[in-house]
Amino acid sequence: MENTMTSRADAAALIDHTLLKPESTAEDVAALVAEARDLGVLAVCVSPSRLPLADTGDLVVATVCGFPSGAHASEVKAAEAKRAVADGADEVDMVINLGLAKAGGFDGVEADIRAVVEASGGALVKVIIESAALTDEEIVEACRRSEAAGADFVKTSTGFHPAGGASAHAVELMRKTVGDRLGVKASGGIRDAEAAEAMIAAGASRLGLSGSRAVLDGLK
């Protein structure tokens, strides 16, 4: 890709190199870590049962919580987050209770997020709002509640919802809502440099990618 606005190095510094397929093996995860180090990305993101990771070097280690449905009891999410941090996670990407959000129960959404934030003991918490399944008004309120609950980031998508993944519109709306107070992570369906650049231009400060090499190769 020519005339890109983002350099390969700058993009790599935003990437959570991700492997969350349920069928992934220990060998697959080891390969992910090795590839992440080779690519010079910021972080790897894996399922919590894959922790602790070996040979991570300077990589940030992220995991998921209440994934992918978000329809777990808050106590279970909190326990999962606490265990993940004990197992070496630096960051926890949790899924909101979508059913509560769709029903307008945002006090419950906020309480659910807060339970995970408190259980994470200072680890960075990203809140997956599953933006493709929400209206604009619901996206804004989910972001507001994430901030009120003490989260560090809001994140578009799990990448597993049938409604779809990240969109530049959702990222822009999320960034407008949280300003520079929280990070915004775009994830789900970002497969090439053009899509990655659109997310960065819209306000994303982190990218969740499973095909990081293909994206970075488009930014040479």
From TrEMBL:
Protein name: Deoxyribose-phosphate aldolase
Role summary: Catalyzes a reversible aldol reaction between acetaldehyde and D-glyceraldehyde 3-phosphate to generate 2-deoxy-D-ribose 5-phosphate.
Catalysed reactions, semicolon-separated: 2-deoxy-D-ribose 5-phosphate = D-glyceraldehyde 3-phosphate + acetaldehyde
Listed InterPro entries: Aldolase_TIM, DeoC, DeoC/FbaB/LacD_aldolase, DeoC_typeI
Organism: Brevibacterium pityocampae
Pathway where this protein functions: Carbohydrate degradation; 2-deoxy-D-ribose 1-phosphate degradation; D-glyceraldehyde 3-phosphate and acetaldehyde from 2-deoxy-alpha-D-ribose 1-phosphate: step 2/2
Enzyme Commission number(s): 4.1.2.4
Gene transcribed to yield this protein: deoC
Catalytic center residues: 93, 155, 185
